[in-house]
Amino acid sequence: xxxxxxxxxxxxxxxxxxxxxxxxxxxxxxxxxxxxxxxxxxxxxxxxxxxxxxxxxxxxxxxxxxxxxxxxxxxxxxxxxxxxxxxxxxxxxxxxxxxxxxxxxxxxxxxxxxxxxxxxxxxxxxxxxxxxxxxxxxxxxxxxxxxxxxxxxxxxxxxxxxxxxxxxxxxxxxxxxxxxxxxxxxxxxxxxxxxxxxxxxxxxxxxxxxxxxxxxxxxxxxxxxxxxxxxxxxxxxxxxxxxxxxxxxxxxxxxxxxxxxxxxxxxxxxxxxxxxxxxxxxxxxxxxxxxxxxxxxxxxxxxxxxxxxxxxxxxxxxxxxxxxxxxxxxxxxxxxxxxxxxxxxxxxxxxxxxxxxxxxxxxxxxxxxxxxxxxxxxxxxxxxxxxxxxxxxxxxxxxxxxxxxxxxxxxxxxxxxxxxxxxxxxxxxxxxxxxxxxxxxxxxxxxxxxxxxxxxxxxxxxxxxxxxxxxxxxxxxxxxxxxxxxxxxxxxxxxxxxx
Amino acid sequence: xxxxxxxxxxxxxxxxxxxxxxxxxxxxxxxxxxxxxxxxxxxxxxxxxxxxxxxxxxxxxxxxxxxxxxxxxxxxxxxxxxxxxxxxxxxxxxxxxxxxxxxxxxxxxxxxxxxxxxxxxxxxxxxxxxxxxxxxxxxxxxxxxxxxxxxxxxxxxxxxxxxxxxxxxxxxxxxxxxxxxxxxxxxxxxxxxxxxxxxxxxxxxxxxxxxxxxxxxxxxxxxxxxxxxxxxxxxxxxxxxxxxxxxxxxxxxxxxxxxxxxxxxxxxxxxxxxxxxxxxxxxxxxxxxxxxxxxxxxxxxxxxxxxxxxxxxxxx
Amino acid sequence: xxxxxxxxxxxxxxxxxxxxxxxxxxxxxxxxxxxxxxxxxxxxxxxxxxxxxxxxxxxxxxxxxxxxxxxxxxxxxxxxxxxxxxxxxxxxxxxxxxxxxxxxxxxxxxxxxxxxxxxxxxxxxxxxxxxxxxxxxxxxxxxxxxxxxxxxxxxxxxxxxxxxxxxxxxxxxxxxxxxxxxxxxxxxxxxxxxxxxxxxxxxxxxxxxxxxxxxxxxxxxxxxxxxxxxxxxxxxxxxxxxxxxxxxxxxxxxxxxxxxxxxxxxxxxxxxxxxxxxxxxxxxxxxxxxxxxxxxxxxxxxxxxxxxxxxxxxxxxxxxxxx
Amino acid sequence: xxxxxxxxxxxxxxxxxxxxxxxxxxxxxxxxxxxxxxxxxxxxxxxxxxxxxxxxxxxxxxxxxxxxxxxxxxxxxxxxxxxxxxxxxxxxxxxxxxxxxxxxxxxxxxxxxxxxxxxxxxxxxxxxxxxxxxxxxxxxxxxxxxxxxxxxxxxxxxxxxxxxxxxxxxxxxxxxxxxxxxxxxxxxxxxxxxxxxxxxxxxxxxxxxxxxxxxxxxxxxxxxxxxxxxxxxxxxxxxxxxxxxxxxxxxxxxxxxxxxxxxxxxxxxxxxxxxxxxxxxxxxxxxxxxxxxxxxxxxxxxxxxxxxxxxxxxxxxxxxxxxxx
Lengths: 499, 316, 323, 325
Known about the structure:
The structure holds 4 protein chains of 4 kinds. Chain A is of the alpha/beta class.
């Protein structure tokens, strides 16, 4: 297709970690002006490849070629010299530095004296970048005051500021609303036409096919295919990624009869800016809570669970008033699968068993006397039931893959006697195979009589999985969509401002 | 508005004790809030001031024996300009700079208890630690019959009181060649450290006949250790705070440090100086011992003690 | 708008009104203390007394400024008081052995720097928890000071040394000048240099530094080294003030410094620090001690007041920041 | 047969040999060196001395260990000992009742701990600073209460708590083993313990898992305070006297004992049994220095080096870190 040598080419790259071959003779090339999609399940080696690319890891074996010439990438500085910039999924931003300082972190303009910074120039150039991205925020704003989507935009500005010739993006849309995603895509096309090569990692099939010029599939640290978008259907691509067929439609039997009322929220408002929330969840149904990022979905979840202070309104659980801290919520049968599994969901240094047992401790051990053997037994059963891939229940949970960690975060509530599950972004950053398993698990919960309130930024998930959905906008419920009305278009129509 | 009311209320509350002040204001510096010796000295100073119709203000570091804090307190006091200062340095050498500041402000200062290594003083009131150590040690060695094994428990190494007392102890030991000094270790003037040190020494030495402790707090620690191990030895201390132990026969003797009198006479000297009455440059108490024989006269509680008349003491 | 929006911290966003909005508990307390003491004692606002507060606060300030940066990196240095003490002993020893003042100061600075670099290396390279590392080096420094002096003061009669604390330069007391220079230096380092930017990043997101190709460890070591160096400098003032070196003179002062830093609004998390707040914190402690001395408040009450200052300042911040 | 195996496994878990194995070996190595260097080291009396001296440190450090497990710290334990001892002493003097005095001592310690817990858990203050402030407040109240005096001379029944023997062993040593068992049981074998570890490992995750954070934090600070109160009684009984600042010298050694014993200041890692070994190591070294009549000036230096060595060793063996560095 391209007769000129690729902008960057990796040949036979291998990277070994104790016990794992993260990359096994992977070859990969990206051309100027090309969007190269990199797909694969979690643990397939995408992140490792990306870290090799940006110099964070050193390859054990293999060679790099830049415009046909052999080069070395041994450190982030080497990568930067080649014009490689990376937008990480987990932000590389410093909370108490300004936007400008973050954009130019490590590349500060020298001031008059050695070691000093030319602040004026830094803010000037930062302003230009933000303008380019259509972001109207003062460059002196501290990053911790920004929302997630804005932080993502700063991250992108940071990469752009490096005048990158090769831009690596790891799930850049994960935290973005659809509108912001559109803006990002427009920008990518702009960069593309300027001749920038883009390596784009994604789990979203729609994006892969819409944006990709070429698709490379990794599995178990090996490259299994490199193809053009026209050469495969989404299902075939998924098949390549997981090495087996997976039903992507998450088909389930939607709730037929109206179950008993589990949760009723009346006029709820909280310190985190949600106001006048009214919603219900019944036994046996999955209720969606959708809307743009920043519309207040997680905040509603946290308010119901008592994680944020409620300032007004009523929460009725099984028709009885409920109010209080998370411990009261758990005792009343509410489970929360939080948005961030590492920060809020897991005690990473503790074992799988310890994490799985935590919410249900008082149920499993009503006498308050803890039996390690019994805990291992209960955890073992959960591990089997959830098909968590771990050699032992005693393994620290930080050593598990993202999908398995997510299963632990959901699984820990199975022993807590919960009747209401609030699940915030159940599939963020996990692969297709694990997604299907997690939805099967959620389906299992409701079929056993639980009620689920599910928050997701992926509209397709809401549409496919939920019995009905609320749509939020600006901290309020903007509307309700029944099963029949539920479509991505309708959610968007309700969730977006009418300007 | 509310804050201002509050502020003035607090102000009134704080000022009220000062409102009755008349006569000379004497600032009294002691080393810490915990050692009973300094409590006695402060009581003595208060009593003397009351007798002579003056008032005292006490300055004690919040961290025991803190040099920077005493230094700051001096600087603060110099601003307030009391009529005179009665001063115990927390460190005899390091506080000379502080004394110089008092001198520079022309505030008369009487040094008591622990002699500062420099600076100008109206007078020094205290006990000669060397003599006191020597006399107390002699008393112990006499009771041992001039033979046997003894150990020394030292106080804080850098303190001049400790150095002088230990010198006195050792001089007495020289006079008694048949007494063997097994070990000399520090208990830092603290009861619990002395207790641990004694416990360990008893392991090393199966026969200890006498213990010379550089203060009474350590001596009582030693007594506890002996009792716990069910061993017997004659113990002496210095400071005159272990009165009860002497009464009970656990402590053989203590060198009377006359803390209360030091406070009394130091304060009297300061006031007399202000009133242009004669004050000797040095007022040293003789090295007296408190023993079973004379302990009865020392059983007065601190708040009942009364300062002796200046003339009664100085005449001697 | 919503109550929880965190007020803009100063420094990087440096409009004056933004700074005012973030007035921390300590500023109110400092204001209240000054008001009460000024009403209660004629002497409090007198020039010599204000000078006293300034002079007495300088040593603590010189420790607290680098401590602010260390705490911003989610670390702590509890060896500072002991290192200061050891450096003071070294300085006095050199002077007592006929060394010149510059030589003695150099020796003190090297002593401090050595401990700072050592702390930094153990923390950065071996990933040992800062509290434990500096608890260990605190023992080492304190032990060396005791062994070097045999527990006694080293007296120095050196006019140029005495002139450091007492003397003045162009009408301004030198000690205050040193304090001002160290404050200006710290401010410049933290807000104007790469080093300062990376200090924010070390606490806020050290991975970001690695990804930006910065050797984070160098800067982490540098932060502790700065702390050690400043402890060495503080030794000059301490030794001059006492005209001697004493093996326990400043033991425990690091806790006062840490308290001043935290009371001043610097947090143990996320690289959220504020240098000016530290200055306020140090002055609040200084004003409180001085004022209580002027009012001749009983010492036992003074002891409690210092604890109350710390707790009340945090309580005010806690209520202001309550979600 | 089965019972024996089960109880053996139970013991193994309680003592958690894996965590403290290296440290136990280090303690034994110190013993060997001391036995070679001093012929009195291995005498029964000396070993009992070591145990008795270690017991006080352990009682204090065991409560502190629970606090550190939650990623907290309690700097006020030393001041707490001072206040508990002084108030207990004056109650004994006033009423003549050892029991009442003992109850008061533990009660005062508990109250200070509760206050710490409230500041940390409900007011959300950083533990380091809250307990440092409390240290000063408690000291001030104690100094005011004591006014520079010493209270001494307690009934024999009370003093047995510190210096008495039972079946040849000092009574504090029994207390040490009782609280080793209680502490280990609480930390390892109750759901409270599990929750405390979880709080230290990730407080937010624990909160969102329904762990009542505030209650558990108040609990650990209260326990730490009560243990300081108990330690103050043992100390009081041993010293037979109370002064205002008797406890301050214990704060940092108690923290050091926990850290040498493998408890991590980051929280979530550590055991009470490890703390016992830490206390033993510290005590052994000080005992050895006394036996070999080494100048006390060496003590801070040696203690500092031991702390550094212990943590250095952890850093080397911890390969890969705990995921939070």
